[in-house]
């Protein structure tokens, strides 16, 4: 919602401010479709050249995130803490044999099924089950630091792929001013071909050519650049969920007391999504 408001404010202030100060919008609006065709088409072409089909689909999903915001809400973080702490408690009190059926078939586990929203994220579920499977098959011989290293690599790999849409958008934003210059140069070439025309016609053609430079800069710093920044914010906010899982598992493997495990889980969560200590601690008593 805020993004739509921002776009409206941007357009209103730029074009409205130009008109308010006495500028004539007619030449700008006349040139806008042609310049947009060149700049926008070149931008899309550069994205196709520089990305695979999978990355282009991820880019479309990244753009959707700009408007939707993070998919994980406060309750999701709370549920994740409850889920992983319950699994680690089962490992500690009942042993690997009791835990194994849950991590091998989470879709049929009564524990996992209590958290249907988390089950919709296969990456999150695989991070939990793959890590705990590693602990189970090692029969407790793995040092917690080794488990932490494996999880760090997994999260790092996930972060790299998740942030690619934001990076692609930023690359496009960096290229748009230059593509605007390309459109402007083509406009100048067109103008030079009509050098015998009257000054008022030449002036209008030169003004149209300059719209290309204006449009490239506006799109880069007014739209695509902010889109890239917002996409990165949203993606990083969702990645915090995976760090929460890591903190709980590692702290539990070190046999830290439950209050410290809870604080380790809460420490990396953004304040707006961070459940209180009492909320987590009291919630665990009912489970």
Automatic annotation (TrEMBL):
Keyword match Chaperone: no
Membrane spanning stretches: 201-224
MotA/TolQ/ExbB proton channel domain residues: 141-238
Transmembrane helix in keyword set: yes
Every Motility protein A N-terminal domain range: 4-95
Location in or out of the cell: Cell inner membrane
Pfam families (UniProt xref): MotA_ExbB, MotA_N
Membrane topology: Multi-pass membrane protein
Official protein name in the record: Flagellar motor stator protein MotA
Organism name: Sphingomonas limnosediminicola
Taxonomic lineage of the native organism: Bacteria, Pseudomonadati, Pseudomonadota, Alphaproteobacteria, Sphingomonadales
């Amino acid at each position: 919602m805020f993004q739509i408001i921002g776009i409206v404010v941007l357009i209103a202030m730029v074009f409205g401010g130009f008109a308010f100060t006495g500028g004539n919008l007619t030449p700008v609006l006349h040139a806008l479709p042609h310049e947009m065709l060149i700049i926008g088409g070149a931008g899309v072409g550069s994205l196709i050249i520089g990305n695979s089909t999978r990355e282009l689909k991820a880019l479309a999903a990244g753009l959707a995130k700009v408007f939707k915001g993070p998919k994980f809400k406060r309750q999701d973080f709370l549920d994740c803490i409850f889920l992983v702490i319950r699994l680690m408690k089962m490992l500690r009190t009942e042993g690997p044999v009791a835990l194994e059926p849950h991590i091998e078939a989470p879709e049929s586990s009564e524990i996992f099924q209590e958290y249907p929203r988390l089950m919709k994220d296969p990456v999150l579920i695989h991070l939990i089950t793959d890590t705990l499977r590693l602990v189970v098959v090692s029969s407790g011989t793995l040092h917690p630091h080794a488990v932490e290293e494996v999880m760090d690599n997994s999260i790092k790999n996930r972060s790299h792929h998740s942030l690619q849409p934001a990076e692609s958008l930023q690359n496009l934003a960096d290229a748009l001013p230059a593509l605007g210059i390309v459109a402007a140069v083509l406009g100048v070439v067109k103008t030079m071909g009509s050098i015998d025309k009257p000054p008022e016609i030449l002036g209008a053609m030169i003004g149209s050519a300059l719209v290309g430079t204006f449009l490239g800069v506006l799109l880069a710093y007014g739209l695509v650049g902010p889109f890239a920044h917002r996409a990165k914010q949203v993606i990083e906010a969702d990645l915090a969920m995976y760090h929460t899982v890591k903190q709980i598992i590692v702290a539990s493997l070190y046999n830290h007391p439950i209050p410290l495990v809870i604080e380790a889980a809460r420490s990396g969560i953004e304040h707006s999504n961070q459940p209180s200590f009492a909320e987590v601690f009291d919630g665990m008593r009912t489970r």
